Each structure stands twice: as structure tokens, then as C-alpha cells.
Amino acid sequence: MAAAAPAGGKGSSSTEAAFTQVLQARDDLTKAAYAGDVAGAQAQLKKLSSLLADVAAGKRYAIQVDAQTRAADSKMRSDETSRILANPKATPRQLPPLPDVGALLPQLPPPLNVVSNLPATLLNAVTGLLSSLLSALPIPIPLPALPIPALPVPVPASPMPVPVVP
Fold first, then answer.
1. By percentage, how much of the chain surpasses pLDDT 90?
2. Which pLDDT score is estimated for 43?
């Protein structure tokens, strides 16, 4: 089971509970966003925003300060994504740059791609929060399986020769 990191940690069971709920919310949003389901993405954003507010406040979950800060940043991105999805003609606000958390996400399908990839940035922010929640564990955070379209490139019939370097 997960354990909170020693510096600033507040409890492993609370960290595990927060991690489990944030992971499920992130996965549900990912599935809706990559399916191009705007209504589903909006519903998941509403749930995620409420959860992120609880995590950021540190009242329902006793977690590290770093995780609370990341939750607050993720909530800000969730709220902005919800605002733009509700009114796609609105101008997106400039948000602080997101630190690289190592999550490489493919482009979103239409119609969600018109919101300047705010959902993808939010998913990266939430993945960073998940990483922070389990910072004491050396495990990778899995991304949910995404649909992979068929490639339009034909596959060669025989293996390609590998050049020999002297």
C-alpha cells in the first residue's frame, strides 16, 4: 500500500484515498475527452473540479502541502477548461506554465481540440498531482488505454535491412 512521503506527509490512508479518487476522475475525464464526448467531458470536469477543491483545501484529505498546491493548480485548469467548453467562443485565460510531468498525450479529437488543448493540459496537471500524492513510491502512473487509429502507412512485407556501421 502507499505511504506518504516523510517531509510534510500527513497520513498514508488519506493519501491513498485521495490518489484513488483523483486517478478515477482523471481516467473518466480522459475517456470522455478522447471519445470526443463534450457533454461527458463537462460532467467529468464538474466532478473533478469538486474533488480537486477538496484535495486543495486539505480538509477532507490530509495530504502533503505540495499535493495541495498541485491540486489547486489542477482545479484552476479544470475550471478554465469547463468555462471554455461551456462557451467555445470565449477567450482562454493565460495560465501559468505547467511543469513537465512526463505524460505525453496525443491530440484530442474534434470538437474538443478547439479549446486549445486545455483538457490535455489539465490531464497533465492531474497526472502531476497523482505523482505528488505517491511521491514516496517508485511506481509509474499509468494512463488509461486510448483508442489508436489505424495507420494509413502500409507495413513492409519483409523486415527492413539494418545498415552495418563499421
1. 5
2. 93
